[in-house]
Amino acid sequence: MFFLTPVLVAVVCILIVWIFKNGDGSSKRRKGEPRARAEVHPWVDEDLKDNTDLHQGEEDANDWQESEEDVEHIPFSHTRYPEKEMVKRSQEFYALLSKRRSVRFISNEQVPMEVIDNVIKTAGTAPSGAHTEPWTFVVVKDPDVKHKIREIIEEEEEINYLKRMGRQWVTDLKKLRTNWVKEYLDTAPVLILIFKQVHGVAASGKRKVHYYNEISVSIACGLLLAALQITKVYLEKVAFTSSLML
Predict the structure, then answer these.
(1) Is residue 99, in this structure, part of any structural domain at all?
(2) Domain count of the fold of the chain
(3) In this predicted model, what pLDDT tens digit does every residue of 8-56 receive, in sequence order?
(4) Whole-prediction pTM value?
(5) Tens-place pLDDT, residues 140-196
(6) How far is CA 172 from CA 100, 157, 176, 178, 244, in A?
(7) Which GO MF terms does the UniProt record name (predicted)?
(8) Contact in structure between 197 and 213 (CB atoms under 8 Å)
(9) Is 151 helix (H, G, I), strand (E, B) or coil?
(10) What is the CATH number of the domain that holds 210?
């Protein structure tokens, strides 16, 4: 035991020095922590790359709109159907939506604008974070503009296939025979572009946070697809283009 004493003393000295060094460093971090630590916002979805712009400096902290406390609420009312009617309606709804397909061949026959307006209104009934409704729907009919949109999308899609998506994703798509060529964007008489709003602007001119903006817009896109399928006589004539990344 006598021969181990110097070793033990050395180990104890090293431990004491290590404890003091780390304790001093942690105290320094605690002093500067409020400035260095980025705020955690659960509504920013990392998987979806939701880029809600919330990490603002002190210089523009006053640019954000404070929450509205007095908001008029619309009373909720609904029709309660008998059980048999609920089952029947759910079966009919499923029967309609089960026929939906992700087609890439589209008719050039014209679509009444009233139909387009109604399906977009339906999409606008989607729920959203703090009821911010962070979406913009743009209807494009001009052939030249549609072609420019096609060129932009094909350029990005080619990069997706060759670089971003990776070998496995591209391999999984081979059986579907898809690629970055989107000729149907020229063929369709109507394009519906959907954009997310990462923040809004209040009447005061200040910015409003749009919570879960990407998820909210995705839900609206789902309702849009359902509305198009229900008016399925026109489904093959409309090109639906999700432009969440723009």
Answers:
(1) no
(2) 1
(3) 556 666 666 666 666 555 445 555 555 544 555 555 555 445 555 444 4
(4) 0.70
(5) 999 999 999 999 999 999 999 999 999 999 999 999 888 999 999 999 999 999 999
(6) 21, 16, 8, 10, 23
(7) iodotyrosine deiodinase activity
(8) yes
(9) helix
(10) 3.40.109.10
